[in-house]
Amino acid sequence: AAKQTVIGVGGMHCQGCVKNVTNVLQALPGVEQVEVSLDAARAVIVHDEARVGEAQLREAIEDAGFDAL
Ligand code: 9UX
């Protein structure tokens, strides 16, 4: 089932960071839609929770060098 998860993202300083976070999240199988906001410092992700869970989303953000809050 598709689920929407909101994760705070720390350490983004420009639209390049936004693009980087967006790309690493979109690369995960099961991720269907990603919206990352620099102003709100958060990522809104629609994903198939049977394929990818919140822990993996957080891990991808951290692995890209940002803080999943
Ligand atoms: Mo912007 Mo972010 O120059 O990792 S890309 S600070």
UniProtKB/TrEMBL annotation:
Q: Does the keyword Metal-binding apply?
A: yes
Matches recorded under SUPFAM superfamilies: HMA, heavy metal-associated domain
User: PROSITE patterns attached here?
Assistant: HMA_1, HMA_2
Q: Does the keyword Disulfide bond apply?
A: no
Q: Name one Pfam family in it.
A: HMA
Location of the HMA domain: 3-69
Per UniProt, the keywords (alphabetical) are: Metal-binding
Protein's name in the database: Heavy-metal-associated domain-containing protein
Top-level taxonomy? Bacteria, Pseudomonadati, Pseudomonadota, Betaproteobacteria, Rhodocyclales
